[in-house]
Fold this sequence. Notes:
By secondary structure, the protein is an alpha+beta fold. Helices cover 23% and strands 24% of the residues.
Amino acid sequence: MFSLGGSKDARGGAPSKASKEDVARVKEWIRNTVTVQEGATVMVTELQCKQQDCPPFETIMVLIDKETGNQKRRLHKRICEITEIEVKAVWEAPELPPAQET
Length: 102
């Protein structure tokens, strides 16, 4: 189960709450790394997982573009912990296919 913030992590972690400044900074890094067409949307959100078998926090970055298609990347850390180098690395690498349930 994922939470978009506000509640305490089931494992005792701090609540997920990304600042607008942190989100804006990550969006800017994405725009500086990949070509973002006019009219495209960049979304960044932080999820908090409450299951024992998943990372406590995950940042999802999505580029929504009618011209080039949608792209999604993720980092298993809070938005406030992400660096520009990590954003560049994850966006310069090929997009991985969605995980398959077994």
